[in-house]
Design brief:
Length: 237
């Protein structure tokens, strides 16, 4: 006999909020996420990542201790102060600077600028217009622009952090499937394993204070540095 376990989950995510989150984390949103690998291309080139299990370990490092972790913490913090322009801009500045290499900085900033442009046109809000006006040509980190859009449109913080982490993981798995290369089933096995890890990571990110934020991924940073001088490159980071 097969026993089906059922659990009840309470969420504040409304149906409109769900649709927004699905749209903003979709690979079809034209922000160029598919062009970046966050140093993964170097790891594949050097033989560090050869199987789907290796890919899971790499992506887990990104979202649990690396750039993805930083983004998740700052996203949560930014959503909490979205109505305070001074406090929000301080987090936006930190997010724009919190990258170890020029390529991963470009990855965050290019996607942030593209996200801001698209969302202001498709899902306009005065808070987004005010942010764009006062920040001008300053760097826009993807995580904090995402946070402002989510807070302005009433998307639940927990759902936003989960969605952002999932999108980060999915983008890197997609890059890994193309780079190794892996079969589509291996890609889904990787996503299934990462999905089990995202919940605890998201909860930890929401509980992390700004003065406790840091990274511990020297191998990822070295992969990013070396990517700048790879003989051939398919991705921009």
């Amino acid at each position: 006999m097969i026993t089906i376990m059922r659990t009840t989950t309470t969420t504040m995510l409304t149906e409109p909020g769900l649709h927004l989150l699905l749209a903003w984390t979709s690979p079809s949103l034209p922000i160029g996420g598919y062009t970046y690998s966050h140093g993964l291309e170097t790891a594949v080139d050097s033989g560090r990542v050869r199987r789907w299990g290796d890919l899971v370990d790499y992506v887990d490092a990104v979202i649990a201790r690396g750039g993805g972790w930083v983004d998740a913490v700052l996203l949560a913090q930014a959503m909490r102060v979205a109505e305070d322009e001074v406090a929000f801009d301080e987090i936006a500045d930190l997010a724009a600077a919190f990258r170890a290499s020029s390529e991963t900085a470009l990855e965050s900033r290019q996607q942030g600028a593209a996200f801001l442009s698209v969302v202001r046109k498709a899902w306009p809000h005065p808070a987004l217009d005010a942010y764009a006006a006062r920040r001008g040509s300053w760097a826009h980190a993807h995580a904090t622009v995402f946070a402002l859009a989510a807070a302005s449109h009433g998307v639940d913080e927990t759902a936003a952090v989960h969605g952002f982490l999932h999108a980060t993981a999915a983008n890197l798995v997609s890059a890994g499937v193309r780079l190794v290369p892996l079969g589509q089933t291996d890609g889904q096995l990787a996503m299934a394993e990462l999905a089990r890890r995202i919940g605890p990571i998201a909860a930890a990110a929401q509980a992390c204070a700004l003065d406790e934020l840091g990274t511990a991924t020297p191998v990822l940073e070295l992969c990013s540095f070396h990517h700048e001088t790879l003989y051939t490159r398919l991705f921009r980071s």
